[in-house]
Description:
The structure holds two protein chains of two kinds. In chain A, the strands form two sheets. In chain A, strands 2, 4, 5, 9, 10 and 11 form a six-stranded mixed sheet that branches. Chain A contains no helices and eleven strands. The N and C termini of chain A lie far apart (41 Å). By secondary structure, chain A is mainly β. By secondary structure, chain B is an all-beta fold. Chain B has no helices and eleven strands. Chain B has strands spanning 5-7, 10-13, 19-24, 31-37, 44-50, 53-56, 65-68, 75-79, 88-95, 105-106, 110-114. At the A-B interface, strand 4, strand 5, strand 9 and strand 10 of A face strand 5 and strand 10 of B.
Amino acid sequence: xxxxxxxxxMTATEGAIVQINCTYQTSGFNGLFWYQQHAGEAPxxxxxxxxxxxxxxxxxxxxxxxxxxxxYLLLKELQMKDSASYLCAPQILNTGFQKLVFGTGTRLLVxx
Amino acid sequence: xxxxxxxxxxxxxxxxxxxxxxxxxxSGHATLYWYQQILGQGPKLLIQFxxxxxxxxxxxxxxxxxxxxxxxxxxxxxxxxxxLEDSAVYLCASSFLAGDTYEQYFGPGTRLTVx
Lengths: 112, 115
């Protein structure tokens, strides 16, 4: 089976840095996506890691360790608009087609 | 570029009634996904189409849920009969292909309430 674990909720202050961890146990692992989802809205793509290491994209960075089944999303210079759920989604390859298995998400609350 | 379109945005039905959702993916996207997202949880894949063929429906409750993608473009998801536990947001997503770094683009979702 597939198992994804991430904290349910985190709080942080505007301007701070926050790291959201995700551990996974999956078969057919091919890479890992992070999506952002504001309340009542659809998920939007943030990052994709296929190789070990850090991928940086502006204020957001994502890290992957395939051997440890571990990823994190790092958010710098937090803004109020970053209050949202962050979904960790390992990509599974099955019979040549990829699918995503989503975790329950981490709800991030950014306060002034 | 137009995004993924879904309708209706909201639907309220009584249990045992039937309901259908419609999705129009981004033009040129071969892969289409239907997800169920229950409040407080991540999206759960119900069914995945590659063009008009099903490649994964392992988590689709086939006794009550059905989906089709005629002509490899638009898709409909149907629930018949609905149960209280079907109350959720139904998300449609599409991607150019179903491999590697092709990210999925999500539609706004249909919020279903079963009373």
